[in-house]
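New here. Your pick:
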Amino acid sequence: MTSRRGLLLRLSALTGAAGLSGCSSLLARQAESPTGDLAPNPRADELPIRQHAWNEHLRSDDTGNDLLPRHFRLFMLDLDTEPSDAAAETVELAMRTLEDAYEFNSGGLLHMLAWGTSYFDTYGSLGSSPIRSPQVLSRTDDPDLQSFDAMLVLASDVPSTLTAAESAMFDTRPTLADAEIQGRLGDVFSIADRRGGFIGAGLPSAHADAEGVPADIPEESYMFSGFFAGRSGTQASEDRVTIDDGPYAGGTTIHLSRINEAFDNWWELAQSDRVKRLFSAEFSPEDIDRGDLPFADMVREHASSEGAVGHFEKVARARKDGEPIILRRDFNTIDGGQAGIHFLSLQERPRDFEEVRDAMNGWWLREEHEELRDRQNNGLLEFIEVASRSNFYVPPRDKRAFPAP
């Protein structure tokens, strides 16, 4: 296997004094004709041009909330070959294989191929790209700031579909469902890390043996916190998170955090206290269903009178024109035996996520009450810790193979 360092040196040489002759000529051709000599994608008319446009293909509940697929797998990828027409065709044909095998919906397979900071940095275009290297965003965390060439996101209600897709993309599975294997991502990438998880009633309680989860977590719990996540009123639209103009138009950015959770003490709190910590003091347990929750913008008043603030009322302040600015597609995980969340957030620019995290920190509230500290009585911060951060760009579907800077 080619060493990572050796590969990066060769790729850097291609984009250096040689006049950008190697990969830049490929990327220039990709910009003009993203699929090169390949015929146009035969399924282009039935698939959204935006890879991240999942909402119309999701199930919904009785109150109109989109319900994410119940199972996810993420593959952090490193390039194992120099960029070339052949490599770009392999990537495109691999993604078309997934599209041929399954319907693009929760019952079939939803997917995105994103490109990371390492990819853009290798070509000297990270500064002009829509993403940047991840940063430490809280003085209460010390996350691993990670960089990858790419990430494949797979999601389905059917766990065996994810297993089959993984084998087809990175192993020697001869067919996928009834589809011929046209290309394998494993011929271009190696897997640097593999992550998985789940979301939906019955799944958190089925994994109650993980560290940080009590054995008596309710069966109906949607998340390890016991509450529903993803209310429509707290989610940005897909239009809002799409880049409007420039060379990266039509795509979006992903911020991915691994957040460890320690909810043993959480479940020792009364339900009314859990509601205050997650939402705000203005709500009672009877108010909390799956409908939209009004935002009163009384965070300072609650900090002063209650000595505590809720997670929802803090992050709801990070809006533009009254609308949320990030679209969450996060899910529970027990990777490594530790309960947590893979927090996958879509936004137009990474700074949008950073604004939300800054609001979540709540440091500006500490002077309101002596019992409100960096973590204590400060929403969910007492129960979570960020373990890693990374950033990615998601190109439009027709530019997903080696997006041009």
